[in-house]
Amino acid sequence: MKTTESRVHTQKEVAEFTHVKELGGIELLSASYHKQNFSRHSHEGYTVGVIESGAQRFYRTGGNHIAPQNSIILVNADEVHNGCSAAENGWSYRAMYPLPEQFSQLNQELGLASKGAPYFPEPVVYDKPMAEMLRMMFHTLDTSDNRLLRETLLYSAMMKLISRHSRTKAEPSKPAAAQTQLLLVKEFLDDYPSIDISLEELATLAGLSPFYLIKQFQKKYGLPPHAYQIQSRIRLAKQKIKEGYKLMDVALECGFHDQSHLSRHFKRTMGVTPGKYAK
Predict the structure, then answer these.
(1) Where are the alpha helices (DSSP H) in 82-224?
(2) What is the pLDDT of residues 224-238, one digit of tens each?
(3) Does residue 264 sit within a domain?
(4) With contact defined as beta carbons under 8 Å apart, do 177 and 206 qualify?
């Protein structure tokens, strides 16, 4: 059953976040947008969505894609993407945001522990049985308090998704040293999102030139370091909002100048304001 939720009801713009306890906690979204434009951003979890009506246009893995009604959207964890309407009357969809470790847990149960978290190569898939299974799962998580049924449908849907649409990601061959240095910068921004660090300081940390760091970081993670830092701050803000912090405190503790600065970036990424997300 739902544990927390936030609702937004403006003209043709509706977003409802819920958090279920299964698999240690998964965020769900039911949304209907008309004019919403999501800026390029990333999530710590995957995005698995079913288009209920209209169509969505979005960027992922170097190209733009259109997801029409009944298609499934797949965005891998930490993968940069955006989103807007591709239909005159907007689009509506259901989505969940499982974390890599939750998918990895299922891979272990499938005897595929060495595979780690899955990689979904196709941004949009057309799989009617899979879409219907996801819809049934969302409906059950919304309406049933039968834990066995809820877990059964969630596990089954995620395992089916892995078996039908994932593969092991082929890592491009790049110098190992550069990969390690870029990962060091990413982990620093993940672990200390609120710290006011300069590009030169990051470059010194990695032992790279500032220009090389910008170019290679964006190439590997889809965003330049400063934009990636904003995403890390948004993730921290979500966590603190769930813990009940006041929004002004959230803004300052996450490295934003003030509450309006937090709200502007939060809305561009999440589609709702922090205040609505907190309700």
Answers:
(1) 100-109, 128-143, 147-165, 176-191, 199-206, 210-221
(2) 899 899 999 999 999
(3) yes
(4) no
